[in-house]
UniProtKB/TrEMBL annotation:
Its main location: membrane. Residues 139-273 form the Fatty acid hydroxylase domain. InterPro entries: Fatty_acid_hydroxylase, Sterol_Desaturase_Related. Keywords: Membrane, Transmembrane, Transmembrane helix. GO terms for molecular function: C-4 methylsterol oxidase activity; iron ion binding. PANTHER family: STEROL DESATURASE. It holds the Pfam family FA_hydroxylase. The chain crosses the membrane at residues 12-30, 42-62, 96-114, 134-151. This is Fatty acid hydroxylase domain-containing protein. The lineage of its organism: Eukaryota, Sar, Alveolata, Ciliophora, Intramacronucleata. It is found in: Membrane.
Length: 277
């Protein structure tokens, strides 16, 4: 991997995020949590909502910007969905967006609650995780998420499920950040929520709730970044080995096939589904 100051800063920034995230949670962490299930569901919901809002607001500002630096980072040479505002597709996207966001809120709470009913051994006490513990556990969560996402995504590309379910997400031929979670409810459960929640549930008492919240923040940021339509030089995912990034997923939307993984590239490589261009 070629050395550059931007790569070093970008990768360092990821670990700084782990450290600052952990410190912020530690400062406000309650001494005793009686209602663990309620705390689990509400904190997961808020970690996602806050990250989703901040990251989308950032990309929204980028889409509004006339800056040459920002426009040069655009991946596809196609117009954004709103260029040509009279287009019926864009009007339909806008109409469906808020409905989709609203439905997703209920689904997310439902899946988090269901997961906590199946198994909830996660640590909520003062045995706070180290940055090392957060790092290796997030790697494990990412591997589990990626395997579940890859195979559910392949299933969603079979003719039956594509037509009935996955076509909704692929309405965005050129992606924008908020298209990341624009999906049929079945896809949102199968491809987005279950893969993310499975790692924390499987690791059980080995993992602390702070690690889970830091992971949810990162996973939300990654999917929005991967759908942003931009490849900024500071985006860390392009510098991590075997890791997917915005260009990788942008090709998937552009061609409607290949590059099925969400986090790592090795499954596409092993199973011959990487887009080679
Ligand atoms: Zn797809
Ligand atoms: Zn997508």
């Amino acid at each position: 991997m070629e050395f550059s100051i931007m790569k070093v800063c970008s990768i360092t920034g990821l670990f700084v995020y782990f450290f600052i995230g952990k410190q912020c949670f530690m400062w406000v962490w309650p001494d005793k949590i009686e209602e663990k299930q309620c705390f689990f569901v509400v904190s997961l919901y808020l970690a996602h909502l806050i990250t989703y809002t901040i990251v989308n607001a950032f990309y929204f500002a980028c889409y509004q910007s006339k800056s040459k630096y920002i426009s040069q980072a655009k991946i596809e040479q196609k117009p954004w969905p709103w260029d040509g505002k009279e287009s019926k597709v864009w009007q339909e996207m806008k109409r469906l967006f808020w409905k989709n966001v609203l439905i997703n809120q209920f689904i997310m709470v439902g899946v988090a609650y269901a997961a906590s009913c199946i198994k909830l051994d996660t640590r909520f006490d003062q045995s706070f995780p180290t940055v090392f513990e957060i790092s290796w556990q997030i790697m494990v969560f990412g591997i589990i998420e990626d395997v579940l996402f890859y195979f559910s995504h392949r299933l969603l590309h079979t003719p039956y499920f594509y037509g009935k379910v996955h076509k909704v997400h692929h309405i965005y031929n050129i992606t924008v950040s908020w298209s990341a979670e624009f999906a049929h409810p079945l896809e949102y459960i199968l491809g987005n929520l279950i893969p993310v929640i499975s790692g924390p549930i499987l690791l059980g008492s080995q993992t602390h709730m702070i690690t889970v919240l830091v992971f949810v923040g990162l996973a939300t940021h990654k999917t929005l970044s991967d759908h942003s339509g931009f490849n900024f030089e500071w985006d860390v995912y392009q510098y991590l080995p075997l890791t997917t990034h915005s260009e990788f997923h942008s090709k998937h939307h552009s061609l409607n096939t290949g590059n099925y993984s969400s986090t790592f590239t090795y499954l596409d490589d092993l199973l011959g589904t990487t887009i080679k261009k």
